[in-house]
Write a structure and sequence with these properties.
Blueprint: E1 14-20, E2 24-29, H1 62-73, E3 81-84, H2 96-106, E4 111-115, H3 123-127, E5 134-137, H4 144-151, H5 159-172, E6 176-183, H6 191-204, E7 208-213, H7 228-238, E8 242-244, H8 260-270, H9 275-282, H10 286-298, E9 302-307, E10 310-315
Parallel strand pairs: 2-3, 3-4, 4-5, 5-6, 6-7, 7-8
Antiparallel strand pairs: 1-2, 9-10
Bound molecules: iron/sulfur cluster.
């Protein structure tokens, strides 16, 4: 039987809505135990976890997850998208298709799945995502050595199979595919590798290619970002469908209900966030968020990490 998720927050499986650079206010759905993933990417915001898995199962009950999502959709907060991401690779949850279907019966708000693409290798994994509106698969490598270096995958995975899975998924799936490429300095940004990536992208034919770089504290300090001019050059090289994921521009958000410290901890347990990002996410003034963060720092519940000149907060013991 699937266990209940252990947390002090009532919405065990949800976080946010968080301001997302590409989706507006996104209700985060997190359906896995912490860092359950088929990869262990050097840039992962969840830290390093060498024990990877490809075994799909119902980690937590699909019906409980759906109940919480439906309740959040009826709440006062602005929600522009329902996005599956968070503690690992969401497609490892065997009930994901059922949950997506349940959301689609409840709302027209787009359902978005962030995936590392490993599930697309097999038919069942691809079919599980058919009813989502947008799938954001990532592909950071086009060759085995680069794949091994950046994504540090489960031994059963190969980048050739993943690219073939993406090509098939493109043929079968009716929704939008935004292919995300995380560029890491000195690892996948060399000209010969970019040429191979471009060839893979041409085969996959996504609706968009979204170029990202290491903007949040990564698992390994060796994972370093590219500069904006470098990203601009790569964007031009990939052509019209490519874009650099721009910084999120603040929109109105109504105030979040409930205990602010708990809400901050729920956000900071999924990914490192700045005080401003937390303030936008919860619809509370940044000064108020900073006061709560100071108290949480003193109590040892969060820690601060300096990355690229910004201070990020993350939950201690994530
Ligand atoms: S970045 Fe995503 S795919 Fe990579 S290890 Fe972290 S959760 Fe898994």
């Amino acid at each position: 039987m699937a266990p209940a998720k252990p947390t002090g927050n009532d919405n065990h499986y949800l976080y946010g809505p968080v301001p997302s650079r590409r989706l507006g206010f996104s209700l985060g759905v997190d359906i896995l135990p912490f860092k359950t993933c088929s990869m262990n990417c050097v840039y992962c915001q969840l830290g390093s976890q060498p024990k990877t898995t490809v075994r799909r199962r119902e980690f937590f009950p699909a019906k409980d997850i759906l109940t919480q999502i439906r309740a959040a959709l009826q709440g006062p907060q602005r929600i522009d998208a329902v996005t599956f991401s968070g503690s690992g690779e969401p497609t490892l949850h065997s009930g994901i298709r059922k949950i997506i279907r349940g959301i689609k019966r409840t709302t027209d708000i787009p359902v978005v799945i962030l995936t590392n693409s490993s599930c697309l290798i097999n038919k069942k994994g691809r079919e599980a995502l058919f009813e989502a509106d947008i799938v954001v698969p990532s592909l950071d490598a086009a060759t085995r050595p680069v794949f091994e270096k950046i994504n540090r995958p489960h031994p059963s995975l190969s980048v050739e199979k993943i690219i073939a899975g993406l090509v098939r998924f493109r043929r079968e799936y009716k929704g939008r595919i935004w292919l995300e490429i995380m560029l890491v300095r000195g690892m996948n940004d060399g000209p010969s590798h970019l040429k191979k990536m471009k060839e893979a992208v041409a085969r996959i034919h996504p609706d968009k290619v979204q170029l990202n770089t290491v903007v949040r504290p990564p698992a390994e300090t060796s994972a370093r970002p590219l500069s904006l001019p470098e990203l601009d050059r790569i964007k031009a090289y990939f052509g019209e469908s490519a874009e650099i994921i721009a910084d999120f521009k603040a929109k109105d958000q109504s105030a979040a209900a409930g205990d602010i410290s708990e809400a901050i901890l729920a956000t900071a347990s999924r990914r490192p966030a700045t005080a401003r990002e937390i303030s936008l996410s919860l619809g509370k003034p940044v000064g108020m968020i900073s006061k709560h963060l100071l108290r949480l720092l003193r109590e040892g519940k969060v820690r601060s990490v300096l990355h690229k000149g910004s201070t990020y907060y993350e939950k201690n013991g994530r």
